[in-house]
Amino acid sequence: MKLILKEYLSSLKERDELDAILPDLLSTLGLSVFSKPGKGTRQYGVDVAAYGSLNGGDETVYLFSIKAGDITRNSWNGDAHQALRPSLDEIIDTYIPNRIPNQYKNKPIAICLCFGGYIQEQVRDMVEGYINRNSAKGLSFEEWNGDKLAKLILQSFLREELLPKKQQSLLRKSLALIDEPDISFKHYANLISILADTDKKTAKQKLMILRQLNICLWILYSWSRDASNLESAYLSAERTLLYSWDISSKYLDKKYKQAKEIIITFHSIQSLYRQICNDFVRKILPHASKLHGLSSAVQGSDKVDINFKMFDLLGRISLNGIWSYWYLSISAEVEQKAILRKDVQLHFRLLKEMIVNNPILYCPYKDNQVVDVSLASWLLFIDPQYHDDVHNWLLNLIRSAGFSYKTDGKYPIIGNDYYKHLNHPPKKSTKEYKEDATSASVLYPTIAALSAVAQFEDIYTEIQAFKKECLDHCTFQFWYPDETSEERFYTNVDIHGAALTNIPIEKSSTEFLSEIIRECDETTHFDELSPIKFGIFPLILVACRHYRLPMPVHFIKMLKRSC
User: Fold this and answer.
1) Are 106 and 59 in contact (CB under 8 A)?
2) Reported pTM
């Protein structure tokens, strides 16, 4: 494990990576962190500052100057951005005389050179010479290199009492199989479910669990990034975010210290999830504008593989755009809002290019691809400029499904059995087979609802006619959260939610929409979900995408107010 940690630490960047891990580590070691990394503020060489006693020593003020990787001649005192020696000079000349809190003024000070790698031999003498010249009574220097950080992480987060050998083995297996992402994720998901078992745990123990989840995800992400394969990291980030919310949400309205630290750690996991998703999108971006650029890259053994992956990709890109839209809606900083507004527009264009350049996205094979269709439509409906694009896509999607059904092509069917989809439709398709394979649908009524909201009457009429002509046996339905959803939504430990059937698709689009929205108004279970109560609605959509649950109709109700 120590070798794994050292490899992980050496790969971390300084900003938002190594400096994101260190405060949690120091808190776990018993130090009180009084200064954390900030953006837009002058730090005078200090990235993290803490006070306390380590290993029974004197109570000391620890000032950390953090750098990435090894300390080379360039990163010590060269042309590198924010070289280490000038940062140490700033600490001695400015931070110590002017910035240390009054209650710590007369305490011993340790300036900590913190980096994920090692000091290279050609620089060692210069570093030690600097330390010898500037050491004084009450002022010392410490080297916190990758080896020391790995040892401290093992002792604090991953020691055997907290992370037994079985869990450590699961983490190692997940890292070893990054190039087999489905298997890697299976091991990591098992690790999460064991770690996040918080039954009869105290707030202090839950805080430690969250910090362990955070550090384990960082390790997986850094290894995945080095291997240029983010698939396992992406799926693991979703699962970690949802389990972390399940633990943290109970403490959002609490004011005591440990509750606040729990929420801070959740936000750290949320930030890491966001970073992984953004990295994933950057991998996709250069290929979206090319005809068949993404679908040809799937290299599946059958077109079913390509179809499944492309709709999955559509859902991921859409969800990341929805997160950007949410961050934009809560941001108060003018500069940050401008960056986020550009990011939302980028996702609009990316979705449009994906759909236009990959025609397989006009042909859903699974009914539960409604999840991805809903996410993409919801995001694009935000900007009226893209309403025509959504219209063209949904109209072609319905026509493709209808044509395939009538000609025994690859029409959407229920179920997730891969081999069933691979052999669909059989060479001798019977009426009984078709009726069984399409006995229920969330896809068609959801597209009908989206069309009704946007007043796409031609699409709504097409669905009405298709239902009457070919799908009279099919039960159109919607999914609504129920009283058990809050307890089960984020971990998917059991079935939850309720289905609304007997959808009145034969009525006008206005009456149809009124009926399904009235059902939203008559139940409070959606409004009682913790992400809705605390204003983080994209978490609901992460759970829907990750566990393949239909988007609640309440999100279509939200669109009604904006369309």
Assistant:
1) no
2) 0.86
